[in-house]
Every structure is written in structure tokens, then in C-alpha cells.
């Protein structure tokens, strides 16, 4: 949108003649500029002027009256303007004339007046300043005289006036040298006065580590004026007095409250005259022997100090300082933290004397803290603490007991302090449900382990002994009356319920075993003699030198695993040796049922045969058990002593409750702390199983404690929880140790890479190295845990480890899709390496091996070794005779397909296998 042109501006078409002419002139070039052109332009302008005049004349004539009025008005305005201009010029002359003008005259008059006013003000200021300085001089002279004369209280009052006077300074003296010098001299006199007062106070009140000296009056230095102590204290400034009182309170609290309440000392009072003739009061302290000290004497010493200060000092201190009451909190704190709490006794025999001291402390709080010191608004902290002194005593004992337990846990134990505890194994010939099964002589009868670990002998050493001496003789006695069994093997209510580990594995079926390996078994030859062997010095038989088995049934030799498919004709005797269909673990035949014993009656049948096993327990847990027993005895003695004089209506069972609750805390501390501080130690299987044994033994001993009838319900519940947690921790460490060993075996067998391509010598060597390493690892594991674990748990742990190794080898070999003749031979050799582990399960050199009982995969693994080189007819025969019941049908089918080429015979054999294992009646 274009910008609109205002209406008052001329349009282009209405341009005047002058503009038109000028435009033509500007557009004409220099060559075209001629006389004729200029004449034309002038003529044009003349015409335009005449036309303009004509239009003006016409316009005036058209409205002549209005024009006349406007002309007359313009002439009038011009006349008035001329008159006004003349008047303004006259007024300007009147005002601004330098000689007679109003403004110059007024300015001159005001200047003279200001000069006179300044002279008057200067005179007045000078007079005031001189008067002010005269008063200041007089006051300063009097102040200096008082200070020089040693009249310090008067000087303090005087310099208060001088300070007020100096605060009323004259404006005319601000910043002048005389005023600055006056202030400097005043500060010097004030500082000198304060210094002399401090010096006089320091000689009036002397408090150090050995004595308190209070002089009622003291002579001011460099003067003959003697000032009394109240005058000195009242003359001190509030800031100075507060600082001195803070220092005095600190010194009294440190040297005469904390020290006297924490040390044996004697206090002496004396009053002597100084050289100047003034009397001085002195309190001195001296260290005293602590052999026959009475704790109440410490409170008496503090009473003496407070009485001395009250008689000679407190009354002189200004009330605004509030000094005596300021001592109440430090004194109460010291009485509790420095005296009563640290003096809590550690035995019940010392409690009566300590309680007398506590009563004295309560009386001291009422008489001195609330009376002498005036802290009437404060609380009864000492009395409140004294009302709960029993609780405080028990809490201190709890801390001491737990600290002792911690030291025991951190104690670097060794095997010299260990002992062997007993575990009773109750044998039960319990048949499994199902069809009749042959009895496997080699498998142990069903047992129920019962922990009856022998209690340690009574401890002779005191609990506070630094040397943790243990009795060297091992515990061998068994509480015969503590194991009465009812029909369901339950323990009578009045007998401690011993923890029962899980029963051993079920008995596997009888199977012929291979002939013993011809090569020597270095780890199998442990020198395991029979149970009655008298050689107890060898490591090989850690169980044979402690106890003898009770009512141990004869154990005939177990049948050997099949080797080279020898004597297969004997497989036709199912009642004696043929296993029946009970995969995956073989079953056992019905054993003669043993009559269950009824509850104890005069005519009760005899208890099942029992066998004792021993296991290694560290001296550390024996020490902890002694500590737990001592804690329970101490709690019972405290509750029976009535030393705290229980109030009527209160339960006496509450006394000793905190100490008794410490007993399970000791066990909790052991379970939580020992695995952390001994993490590197328990990484080894021997010590890990040892820790499991310790927890298991503690669980059994806590069960005996629970048989006591004097335990409170809360304590009984916590002990039961500690027992269960100890038992659970024992099983967890037992399983964890086995799990770590199994993980190590799996990691080693990973190097075999599934036993693929063993027909290549390089791959066979790698697999053989892995299998040999597994063999060595298992032997080393057995060597470490055998001296530690009881016989049954040792075989269970070892059996679980061996079974894991065999199961891994079985799984890898059965997963092979194709096995050539060369590979089957190599796999047979690799399997035979692990058969050397059978020697680890021989209780003695002449007895049968228990490997079938504790290694569920043993028979399956043994048959796999033989199947690697068996013919199709041999496999069919074994299958029909029920010898391969440990294998699943799918495993047998895959194995046949991997071993043999695709022929009609293989197809018929696979079809026969897929029909399932032979029925029980068909055998």
C-alpha cells in the first residue's frame, strides 16, 4: 500500500510556475542554455506573478470586510508586541543592573550574612570543643590516677564514664589528632586495667592439676592497694569474666571431677597465711594405690572439692555468671561416663559393693548437684540410671561376653586343639515298597544318623585367661540314657532332641562286578584296616581309633560289576542277582522286617543296632560352647541372687534375661563372623567340611541345652532358632563344598569336548588328560575330607562327587551320534580310568566296596564301559536279563544306533528295545 500524500502538499499537476521553471532549468543542458531560453523563462515568471497578484486582488475584493478586520487585528498585535518588548527590556535592566539591580544587591547581602554565620558557628564549635576536651582531660587524669594507684574497681567505674563521654564526641573533633590520641590513651588505660584485674584474679584463684589455691584478697602489682576477691570478680568485664569462668570450669571438670572420679586419690585441705599476711585456702590431691580402694571414696573426694569451692569461691562469683550451675552437666556426665559406667563390675560377687556406691551417687546428686550447685530444674539423670542399674550391668556383661566370643572366633586355631566327636548311626532294615527285591550284601542297611557328640570335659581355666588352653584328652563317653527310642524313633520329651542328618542313599541292586583292576591305586591304598584295627596313628583310618561299632552286622562281599561280559550265564538267577525294573536307581529286595520298638516299657523290644562314628571338631567351637554354658549359669545365678531387690509385683525372671539372651548371640556371632574372617581358610575342602562339622556339633550340643527345664520361653525359642540355623548352615557348607568340587570336575571335563573324535591320538590324549585330572582331583578331595567327616557323610560326599563325574561322562558319551569301532575302544579305555575310584569306597582292605551304595551311576557307568565293546547279541541278552535297567530306553536306542551300522539286525534290536524293559514277572 502506497504512502498517502498529505492534502496540504501540492500535487504534481498543480505545481506552481516557479517550480516548473526551476525544473526546466535543471533539465536543460549547458549547451542548450541560451539567451532566448532564459528570456522565455523570465517572461513565464512575469506572467505567473501578474496572475498571482490578480488572484490575490480578486480574493481580497471578494471578502473585503473580513480582510479589513484581520488587517486591523494584525496591526494591533504588532503594536502590543512592541509595547511588551519595551517593558521587558526595562524590567531586565532593573533586576540585572550591576550597580542598582535587585539581584546583585540581594546576592551581596546574603554573602555577608553567610560569612557572619560561619564566624559565629566556628566560635561556638571552638568553645564546645575546648570545653569537651577539658572534661575529657579531667576524666582521663582521674582515670590514670586510679589505675596507677591500683584502685581498679573505681577505675572500672570511671572508665565506664569516660567511655560514655568519648562516645559523645564533638563533630568538630572527628578525625582530629587530639581526639585520636585521646581514644588511644583511653584504650591503653582500659587494657591496663583489665590486665591488672586478670593478673589479680590469677593470683587469687589458682587451679592446676595438683592443687586449688584461693586467696580472699590480693595486693595489686606496683601499688599498695589490696583488693578483695569479690571486688576483683565484680570488676571484670562480662566478656572477660565469661572467658575466665569457662577456663575455670574446664580446669575443675578436668582436674577435680574427671580425674577424681576415674582415679584413686586423696584430698587434703589447708589454710595458711601468705608472706603479705593474707590468708589463703588450699586444696591438694595426691594419687593413692588402687589395691584396696573403696569406690565411694571417689565420690567423697568430689564432695570435698565442691564443699571447698562453695565455701571459698562460689559466693564471690557474680550471679550473672551462673558459674556453679554450669558445673552440673559436666559433673553429671562425668559421674555416669567416667565413674559409674566404667566401674560396672564383671562378676556377680562385686555387685553388692557397687550397688552401695550407686546409692551414694544418687544421694550425691540430690545433695550437691541439685543443692550446692543449684541445678534444681535439671533432671535426675543419675537416679534414672541407678533405677536401671541391673539392665546396665547385664548390657555390659553382654558386650564383654560378645567381645570374648569375638576373640575366640578370631583365634588362630590349629589341629592340636581339635577333638573327635561321636555320631550314633541307628541302623534300620526298612524295605522299600514294591515287588520283592533281592538283598544286596554290599549295600549298607538303612541308617538314621543321630548326633550325640560327646560333651567336652569341664573347663578348668578361668574365662578371663589369655591363653586359650584346652584339655587334650578327647571326649569318649556317651550318655546312654539320652537315647531312648519309641515306636517311631522319637526321643522322649525330657531328653534333648538330637539333629538327624538325611539318611544315606537307598541300596542298589546286586550286580556282578568286574575283577579288580590290575594297576595299583595309589590313593585307594589308604591302609584302611578293619573296624577293630589297633593302629590308630595312621591318617588312612581317622575313624578307627575313637570308638568301636556297636552291634555291627556281618557284611559279606558285594558282587562285582560285569567285566568283559563274563559269566553271563549266572544272570539267569533272578532271585539272587538279576536286577528288576526300578529305574533309574536299582532297587533292593525285601529285607527281613525288624519289629519296631514300642515306647519304653518294661517289656519293650531291644533298640535297633547302633554304630558310632566320629568326626573332627575344632577347639574353637568347644570354647564357644563353654562360653554359652557359662553365660546360662551366670544368668541363672543372677536371677536367683535377688541382688537388685526386685520391686513388688515385678517378675524376677526379667533379671538375667539380657545375659541369658546373649547365649544365642554368641552362636549367631560365630555363624556370621567366622566365614568372613576365615574366608581364605574355608576355601579348602578340609576346612570347609570342618566348619560344617563345627556347626553340626554345635547344633547337637544346643539340643542338649534345650533339654534343660529352667529355660525361659524366649530364650528357648532363640536357642531353637540357633540350633536350626547351625544345622542348616552345616548342611549348606557341606553341600556347597561338594558343589564346588563338582564344578571343578565339570570344568575339567569341559576340556574333553564331549569325547568327540577320540580315534585321533591327539584328541584321545586330551580326553585322557582330562579324565586323569578328574581322577586325581577326586582322590585329593577324598584325602582332604576323610580325616574330617564321619564315615557315612564322607562316603555321601565322595559318592556325590564321583557320581557327578560319572554322570557327566555318561551324558557326553551317550550324546555321541556315531561311535566307530576305534572310538568305542578308546572310550572303553577312558571309562576304565575312572573305575579306579572304587578303591576309595573300601572300608578296609578285606571288606567289600560300598561304591554301589553311594554312587547311583556306578553300575550304569560300569555297563557302559562294557557296552562300548559288546556285540549286538550281548546287548540283547543283557537287556532281556534286566541288567540294563539303569539305562533309559532312549539312551539304549541312541547307543545302539551310534555303535552299529544300519542293518536289519540293528533295526530288530531297536524295535525290541523300544518295547520297554522286561516285566518283573518275565524275569
UniProtKB/TrEMBL annotation:
Residues 770-913 form the ZW10 C-terminal helical domain. Pfam families: ZW10_C2. This is ZW10 C-terminal helical domain-containing protein. Residues 517-533 have a biased composition (Acidic residues). InterPro entries: Zw10/DSL1_C_sf, ZW10_C_2. One of its GO terms (cellular component) is cytoplasm. The lineage of its organism: Eukaryota, Fungi, Dikarya, Basidiomycota, Agaricomycotina. It comes from the Eukaryota. Residues 563-576 have a biased composition (Basic and acidic residues). It comes from Phanerochaete sordida. Residues 438-447, 500-511, 599-609 have a biased composition (Pro residues). Residues 434-473, 495-610 are annotated as: Disordered. GO terms for biological process: endoplasmic reticulum to Golgi vesicle-mediated transport; mitotic spindle assembly checkpoint signaling.
